[in-house]
Amino acid sequence: MLRLEKVHAFYGPIEALRGIDMVVGEGEIVSLIGSNGAGKSTSLMSISGILQPASGTVNLDNRDITGIPAHEIVKLGISQVPEGRRIFPKLTVLENLQMGAFRMKSFSSVQEKVYNLFPILKERSGQLGGTLSGGEQQMLAIGRALMSDPKILLLDEPSLGLAPIMVSKIFRTIQEINREGVTILLVEQNAMAALKLSHRGYVIESGAIMLQGRSEDLLINEKVRQAYLGE
Global pTM? Predict the structure, then answer.
């Protein structure tokens, strides 16, 4: 469904991605793990059109979407949940969700799906986003992304700054979203949790893919265990 081929990306003179190749199949959860500054978020932003690759291609359903503006990529079926949530703090929960549905002519059915996933958002629909707890804001960020009814959901560090009980809830919800037919590419600081959740994984170091394979194999890979699993 999604394929990156030899993607290079720069921040000024700094090469952040050095020719990465990645494939995400329909219906999969694929994790992308690596240290801080390895290129994980840059990979997601290159897919979603926030950052334009310097070279290489991003393909969705065999269509080259490289260089297409971010709002057009949303219309094609890719939606991103950014690191740090980045909700609109002075808008209500409902208004935040509506911002995610800008491409939809009618979104009431999708909104109901979001409320079913996160009942607390329905309860807090009139509350300002900035007054929610960190976990509730993460739910809102995911819900906002789902309001575009995406084929592929890009998740950037969904557990960041959350209490363990909320992390477990978020990860269970990610599984539920995937079971409902949404393909997921997951960037996550908690490498063990990400690999346990995903079907396949990639390890990125200094802007290059160093390892890839089934998540169960990466979990027992000695290098991965030492570098990312704290063993």
Answer: 0.94
